[in-house]
What we know:
The protein is mostly helical and about 160 residues long.
Amino acid sequence: MKASGMWRLAGGLALAAALAVAAPARAADYQIPVVTGEHWTQSSPQERKAFLVGAATIIELDQEVQGAAPAKNSTIDAWAKGLSGYSFDQMVAAIDKWYADHPDKLRRPVVEILWYDLAQPNFGTTDIGQADPKAALQEKRAEAKAQAKAKAKEAAKQPQ
């Protein structure tokens, strides 16, 4: 991917982030694609960096929208603090290394590596909600999977 393509991808990710933040519906109402190690390892270095630029743009946009007093259950400050010590190149290298060290776990989402392996070790303890974030993430995935299954079942009942 050429540099102009990377910026178009980053711009597209930023636009998607803006639309996601602006939408009044709950995130659980939508099933979004999940970028895994399978996608990551098949991407060019520029595409990997563009993915991270998009993620950083989402964090920056959410900080702007929430202002000085973010919601109590917001993880945005933890993301910002946890990733602030990394450059984009360092994050790419760390994620590349994680997947190289765990070739049997290519189905693990990139965002989990960003959170659990890069950000979380750098922000210490937090009062984000009362639940274990990993358990909450698993619960949200199970809920989204159940909703998708119910929608598919309902769609199958509809005459074609």
